[in-house]
UniProtKB/TrEMBL annotation:
Organism, scientific name: Vibrio algicola
Protein name according to UniProt: DUF3024 domain-containing protein
Domain of life per record: Bacteria
Entries under Pfam families matching the protein: DUF3024
Matches recorded under InterPro entries: DUF3024
Length: 119
């Protein structure tokens, strides 16, 4: 299990990631947020109606999960063929499925060069 210090470090970095993304992306493309659930961080894209300041829905787009057996963090992304009205199906990130350092995977979520997460 990751230490409390490591969790706080990851949380701080996830907050920065969401803040940076929300400053640089218009609301129509969805705002970033995250939630901590047990041993994982779940990232959401919050969708807004064009003429509204109220959230229309939150879409889970990525999750960073700690696997205690291998002491590694795993990065999962929402399966592209998921209907947003059904339960989420997760798949390992294609090019960066795991790493011992969660901050490395947070960089993958932030940059999303292949547009697997935020696209």
């Amino acid at each position: 299990m990751p230490s409390e210090i490591e969790i706080q470090r990851i949380k701080r970095r996830a907050e920065q990631l969401c803040h940076w993304r929300n400053e640089n992306v218009s609301a129509e493309l969805g705002k970033a947020c995250f939630d901590i659930q047990a041993q994982q961080f779940v990232f959401y894209k919050t969708a807004f109606a064009v003429d509204s300041i109220h959230c229309q829905r939150d879409i889970e787009v990525a999750k960073l999960h700690y696997e205690p057996t291998g002491k590694q963090w795993h990065l999962f992304i929402r399966s592209n063929d998921n209907d947003i009205n059904r339960d989420v199906e997760w798949q390992a990130h294609i090019t960066h499925p795991m790493h011992v350092d969660a901050l490395s995977l947070l960089s993958v979520i932030e940059r999303d060069q292949d547009e697997y997460i935020w696209g």
